[in-house]
Every structure is written in structure tokens, then in C-alpha cells.
Task: structure prediction
Amino acid sequence: MKGFQVAPWELRWNSLDLPALERTESIFALSNGHIGMRGSLEEGEPTGLPGTYLNGFYEQHALPYAEGGYGYPEDGQTVVNVTDGKIVRLLVQDEPLDMRYGRALEHHRVLDFRSGTLRRDTVWESPTGRRVRVTTERLVSFTQRAVAAIRYEVEPLDGGVQLVVQSDLLANEPIESQSKDPRVAATLNSPLVAEDAAASDYRAVLVHHTRKSGLRVAAAMDHELDTDDGLRCEIHAEDDLARLTAAVDVPAGSRLRMTKYVGYGWSARRSAPALRAQVDAALAGAMQTGWQGLADEQRRFLDDFWATADVEIDGDDELQQAVRFALFHVLQAGARGESRAIPAKGLTGPGYDGHSFWDTETFVLPVLTYTVPEAARDALRWRHGTLDKARERADALGLRGAAFPWRSINGAECSAYWPAGTGAFHVSADVSDAVVRYLAATDDVDFERDNAVDVLVETARLWTSLGHHDLHGGFRIDGVTGPDEYSAVVDNNVYTNLMAQRNLREAAAVCDRQPEAAEALGVTADEQQAWREAAEKMVIPYDDMLGVHPQSERFTEHARWDFEHTPEEKYPLLLHYPYFDLYRKQVVKQADLVMAMYTRGDHFTPEQKARNVDYYEPLTVRDSSLSACVQAVLAAEVGYLDLAYDYFAEAALTDLHDLHSNVRNGLHIASLAGAWTVAVAGFGGMRDHDGALAFAPRLPAALRRLAFRMTYRESRFAVAVDQDGASYELLAGPTLTVRHFGDEVTLTDGSPRRLAIPALEKRDPPSQPHGRAPRRRTPKH
Ligand code: BGC
Result:
């Protein structure tokens, strides 16, 4: 069978399928949030888009402007494909194993969500008819964050044979990429300058640095070879290549087994010898643990994760698999980032130049907050660590406080397109919202004192200097861009204003709780009062005639986009129409007002939500993968459960079905996180306004049961929903009170509470723009 095979805990791909190689490299990428390795074949060729990334490691380049302007960022940053440590080449009696030649009699690869490894099983017949079985398993360790390991085995199937294995570290791999698509990374040719190379015994190390960003990287490998006698080994290292060559005669019935350990380290400050020492130490630790030890640690780490984070779906096996795949990759993106950003593509590909966006705080961190809170804390510490850059940016823009960048690797703004970059000030409120959510979910007082106050205060200052009180007394935020990138530089974007409102209130509240930290920032009682007043008077436009919220002032007065005459192949619109025309029409790239109704659902009445959903659905084209999950959540809330189910499938299958035709450049981590969001906030109806957890679960007709787990403060609990009711069960920790359709439910040890689900009033769902309806989902088993 071609394509991915449906199974609950793994993703299996049968056959080679060369045209799909780049796509499967992203999908089979392994990462721990620090190291990322695309799922390339060990032998290096054929390859689609080779890639090994270290979180935070980038090269700098000048941003080209045909026409510059004051305050435009001068430098861009692009993630670098660092030294490739995955490569293991094989010669079978002189013939290189290359799947484009000879015959692959068997070939499959499996990404295993419980073992956290990528396995491969290939039976290859060389052009001259010699058959070997090659089995490999690789991991990027969750427990030893500087380490990756590969278990490589070859078994001759037609009597004894001579095998030669070459295990490489390879820097500056050539990459082909020419594209006008802005979502594709800038091409960097040979970004690494060689500094040091050494090899002895089975170990080698290469040290390089980048030309402009001045970052240094060391990669080292060591090996264990387990074979019969007669092994002959050589190792050497030169600038961009280190290679261990092992030759051996393998008799019939025997096999060659090699374990390759790879260690990585990078630094902006440390010397080459210091980095060498660091990777040497990482390898020593890994080899002391051994392959089996690393594999056992990996499984234990994942057992813990699934015990807190699993989502079970009965009634659609493909979605069950997709949701676990999604959670696995979200974990991989964030698990061990440790005060580094979580990029929009994680570490699965070079797309968007490896930048982080609001995707992290708004989509990814809610998942991590309720499943792996330490990872959410670490990602927020990264933002906190970039405060100085955000302060400088605010200053350059003539503003107070901190303006977090729209896109960045190191915290400095890298967006060369200010209307949808600098203009998207909401990112600062998104960061503060993630801080507030994390605090409510964990009661982490150290974080509150050491990190949260700084972020909330400086972002609140941004809002009071960016907005102003008009003569009617309202507080306006003019000239900004909301989440919908098909509108820009608008006045009073509802999403931005509501998020800023919460930001201002929470800043005032945290200063009451942490007076010393607030004083250190020079916060006065008057300033707190000014924040509260701005929040109180925040302008939230409303169209009385239509009875809906315009997503920003005057939006509902614009001409509608001519959806009927826009052919399907002209999507995404940004690649086929000028922004000037998109900006002046009613056409929505991605949930914006609808997003506001999720994150600030406390501001809207149920009737307003229903009317707004009906208004915005026919205008929203979902040219961003960040949209379907949010539309699903609101569709579920207002009662369009089957539509929500269609969107659920779209969000969860974005990458597995390559719905945006760009998975080659990396996975859409926010959309994967969105799959969790639909399960938990959509069909589970979870909301966390004001730090209290509330649920309003309801399933679409196709699903028999949905169950999910969460961690909140010291407690872990499970929610299971079927067509008639929902049950809540405390799994560990102290008693916890949540809400079920508004009623308080106290969860105590050992006694699940089952509650009925109120009947739903049926209404007909709205339609989508011509040709843009989500695919109707029929459950797949
Ligand atoms: C979306 C942004 C998003 C970015 C990175 C864009 O297409 O419009 O909202 O942050 O992609 O995922």
C-alpha cells in the first residue's frame, strides 16, 4: 500500500516514492527542540532537502529594500543547515547502496510515537543481484539534549559478502532552492567556515562558524562496531568532512551492526576548544548510557508525556493517528528548547527562515502549558530574554515599553514587510496572554516575580504609548495589523484591542501582587491606574446595522472580494493578487474576529458569537494553516459540530495530506497544535478565561468518544466525552474544581463524575467562499 498506513501509535510509509521524498523528510523529522534532523535516508542520496538544525543557530544577511524607510530592520536571519551527522553510506561488494538503482524488494519507514524513534527496514538488491537487509533506528534524545544516535544493521541475504560502511559528518551540504514564495527560506550557500577538524579511533569532530552572525558550532561522532573479526577501520577529518570507513567480510547468517552517536553544541561566545570539549563530553555521556539506555530513556520520557497529554478518538482512526502525530511533533518542537524560541516549523525544515512568530504563544504554548508546563515556561523565558531587543525596537518606533518582533530567531525584528510585520503589534499581547495562562495553570511564583512582571509591564507600556484616548473618551489603537494578513494598518482591530485590554489589566494586577518587582521597573500607582483606564475605555467597534463586530473599524463597509470569479488555482491569494487590492476588500486570510471570540470569548454573548461566525465564514479563505483550528473551535461553540469536524480534519491533516503543498519546507507546527486545540477547546469546549477551567463538551455525529488529559497546577485529570455525557476524573494531585456548562464540578480522588450534555438547538451552518469549503470529512478506519 502506498502512502501512510493508518495505525494508532505510529506512522508507517511503505515504498520509496521519490517525488514524495522531501515531504516525508519533514514528516519523519526527529527533534528534541534543540537538535532537529530531517528524515533523510541514511545514505545521503537520494535526498530531497537535507537539513539538520540547532535551535537558535542562524546566519545573518542584509535585508534588501528597493526603497528603504526609517525604522526598517536592516538584517535578516536564516536558519542554517548545520553539519549533517545522519549520513551512513554502504557499499555492498563495491556497489553503493542507492535506492535509485537495483531494486528495493522491501522498504518501509516507521515513526513511532511511543519509542520516539524513526525506524527503517529495507531489503535491497544491488544491480548485480546481491541482496542485503538494512535496518536502522534513529533518535534525537529527549533526555540528553545534545545527542542523537543511530543504530545501523546490515545482514547479507545471499551468502557472505564484503561490506564497507562510511559514516560521515558533512558540513555545507549543497541545497537547491529557488522560489519566489515568501514562505520559503532565503538560500544560503556554504554558510559554514571550517575552523577545526580532528579524528582518532572511532571519533571525529568538526568545528565551524558562520561568517556574519559569528556563531560557532561543533559536531562530533563516535561509533561502536559490533561484528565478527576482520574489521578494518580508518577515520579522517578535513574541513567539511569527517569520515569513518569500516570494511568487513560478513559471512552468511551474520550481520554488521554499528551504533553511531552524534553530539552537537553551538555558542555565540565559547571558543572552539571549549565547544569541542562540550561535544566530547556529550558523546562520553551518550556512550556511557549506550544505545539501549538511550532508547529506554526515550521511551520513559514519552510514557510520561502520553500519560499527561494523550487524546483518544473513537470513530475516526485516521484522525486518531493524526492527533497523536500532531502532539508528538509539538512535543518535539518544544521539549528541550530551553530558553530558545519555538519556530513556526519547529526544527523540521527551513521554511519561514526558521523564524518564530505569534504561532508559538498563541497556538503552541497553550498545548504545552496544559501538558508539559516546563516547556512552556522555557519558551516564555526565551521571550523574556529578548526583552532588551524588544525595548530597543519600541524605542526605534518612538514607543515606550517593549515591542516583540513579528518574526525572529534571536529576538530582533526580521520582517522586511512592515504592514504585516511591525504593524502586527498584537504579538506583544499574545506573549503576555501566554504568560498569564502559564501563571494561572501553574502558580509558578518564581516565574511571576522574575519574568512575568517584566513582560506584562513592558507590553502594557507599549499599549499606552501606541494608543490614545480620543475626545469621546475611548481608548483607540489605530494603524495596526490584526491576525488577518489580508487587511493591514487598520484602526481598532477587535482582536488586538481585546488582547491589549487583557494585557493592561493583567499588568496592573501583577504589579499589585509583586510590588517589589514592579517598583524596580519604576511602575507607579498612576501608571497602573492609566493601564486600568485604557483597558476600561478600550474601543471595540460594533456594526449596529448588521449586528456584527467588524474585525476592525469600517471593515464591514468595504467591497466584498469577488469570490465567485476567483478560480481555485489562484489560492493562496497572496501569491496571485496585489496586497493593495486584498487590503481594501472584505476577504479574510485567517480567523481574526473569530480568533478574538476564542481567546477573548468572555467579551462576547452567545448570540454575538453565532452572528459573527455566520458573517465571517463566507469571507474566510483559510490561506493560512492557522485558521481551520480556530474556525473549528468557534463552529463547535455555536453548534455547527459537523463543520467543526471538517475543520478538525483539515487542521490535523494539514501536513499528512500536504494541504498547503509546502510540507517540503517543514511542518506547520501551529496547525498541529491546533489539532489539540480543536479536540480540547472545540469538542471539549475548554476555556480558561481568568484562569479558571471551564468545559462545554459536545461531539460531532461521526465520533463515538473523545478523551483527553491535562495538567493544571498540581493536578492531572482526564475528560471523556461521548454522545450523551461527559466524565471528569482526577488522575493525580489535589482536588480540583472545574466547570461543566457553567456548573461547578469538584474532582476528588478515585471518583469520576459523569454529567449530562444539554441538548443543542439545531441551526444551518453558513457557507464558505466559493471553492473554499473544507473537505467533507467521512471517518476513515
Ligand atoms: C500567517 C501568520 C503566521 C505565519 C507563520 C502566515 O501565513 O498569516 O499568522 O504567523 O504564517 O506561520
Observations:
- The pocket of beta-D-glucopyranose is lined by residues 344, 352, 357-359, 483, 485, 589-590, 624, 626, 670 (CB under 6 Å).
- The two ends are 15 Å apart (CA to CA).
- Residues 272-309 form the longest helix (38 residues).
- Residues 222 and 520 are 50 Å apart (CA to CA).
